[in-house]
Amino acid sequence: MLFGFFLFSVGLFFSIRTCNAAQKELRITTIFQEPYTMSKGFQLEGFCMDLLSEVAKKVGFKYKVHLVKDGSYGRQDDNGNWNGMVGEVVRGEADLAIAPLTLTAAREKVVGMTKPFMQTGISILMRKDISEETGFFDFLTPFSAKTWAGIIVAYLATAACLSLVSRVSPCEWSRPQTEENIFSLSYSLWYAVGALTLQGAGPHPRALSGRVICCSWWLFTVVILACYFSNLSSSKSPESTQLTVKGFQDLANQDVIQYGCLSGSSTLAFFKNSDNPVYRRIYEHMERSKSYVLSMDEGIQRANEGNFAFIGESVSLDLAVARHCDLVRAHEVVGMRGYSIAATLGSPILKNLSVAILQLSEAGELAYLQSKWWASSCMVDKAKSTAVQPHSLKGMFVVLALGLTLGAVLAVLELSSRSRSNATAQKKAFCRVLTEEMSLRFRNKNVNSAQEPADDKDTEKA
Question: Shortest CA distance to 309 belongs to which of 268, 353, 257, 263?
């Protein structure tokens, strides 16, 4: 019995050592690229590092990450040798390669690739002034939508206030029984439009209250028009390229701006191996002009400087747009493909990695990681903003409001002064005369219609 216990202990000891040997520390190769892998002190962080941590928990392995020596993703030379991360996995220098590594047929032949953890495609990154098309309503761009709404409200308020003041003020409408009020609402609207377009309209108000309102509106329109023309001329400055590039067809049909992609990338291989005549022309142009870039940062920098369109992975270009406000990505995306984790051919861990990626995708973890690392830090530069905001003209809106208020107050004072004089002459109460005067001015049609039959009866009696 003791001998059996001894054999059981020895077997258990060797099984534990065998299990520990099986769970050896995996060597992971990666490459610096924001936001997939970035340095934070002596550690690495980013989307790929978070993904690796989650996958390792599900599969159950330990790992050690190192950066690829030649700083390349993986390309096959003329002799059939692979460089970059793919080359390290092929030569056994690394067990896994985790990065924005595109799943291609050539790479699938030499290494094992998991299910894609992110879908992407090929698109174009360029400055906004290159990609934006002149629209039919570009003349509205000097002002923001809120500013235009404020101008419309100010216009309607001015016209309504002018019509109201002209009806109330006795200096403007002295005999409401016999005279017609010139400044009706329709005429006040037309008068305000005339001032806004610098055309003018007549007749002009005679009362002090109406003139105060008109002066306030004229001052408001002069400042508004000055700001409008100033911003319109600056937005149409000759510094803008004024070249519209919406997709690869437009890019291939022009020779004004230069364009290129990452040297030795799968994007270059896509254009090189394509039978599409447009894509072939793009590849021949890049090959002829040698407009390749050595890194993503170089391509983004050249695109930000202008007169250069960078062709690359749409997901990476979206990140550049989130970080640089002057850049925009074209809507056209071609050559859809996925990013995968590379492992050695026949690796027993490959199946478990794919299952773990699918589990993370179904649980929404991959979407969460992308939203975490692709969060936009693009802050709009106020100095470069061409649309004037309402707060930039709030002083003029305040001046106009004060002018309208002062005009309304003066109109009431003018009517009160006349009512007081009439009350003294007729020996009536001031409030009664003021009420009759207001009723006469706002219901003069009824009064005139009531007076007409009386006048007809007097004529018959005569």
Answer: 257
Identify whether the C-beta of residue 205 lies closer than 8 Å to the C-beta of residue 183.
yes
CA 447 to chain centre: 59
Backbone angles phi, psi at 336, to 5 degrees: -60, 135
Q: Evaluate whether 153 touches 220 at the Cβ level (below 8 Å).
A: no
Question: What's the rounded Cα separation, in Å, for the pair 76 and 265?
Answer: 11
Give me the residue label for tokens 């006048």: 455
In three-state secondary structure terms, 362 is helix
7-32: b (≥16 Cβ within 10 Å) or e: eeeeeeeeeeeeeeeeeeebbbbbbb
> What whole-number distance in Å separates Cα of residue 244 and Cα of residue 251?
9
pTM value > 0.90: no
Amino acid at 110: V
Mapped onto helix, strand or coil, the DSSP state of residue 126 is: strand
Query: Among 223, 176, 157, 182, which Cα is nearest to 408's?
Result: 157
Q: How wide is the angle at C-alpha 343 spanned by C-alphas 340 and 346, nearest 5°?
A: 125
Q: Report the candidate in 104, 98, 57 with the shortest Cα–Cα distance to residue 360.
A: 57
Predicted confidence (pLDDT) per residue in 137-186, tens digit:
667 777 888 888 888 999 999 999 988 888 888 887 777 777 777 888 88
* C-alpha span between 164 and 168 (Å, rounded): 6
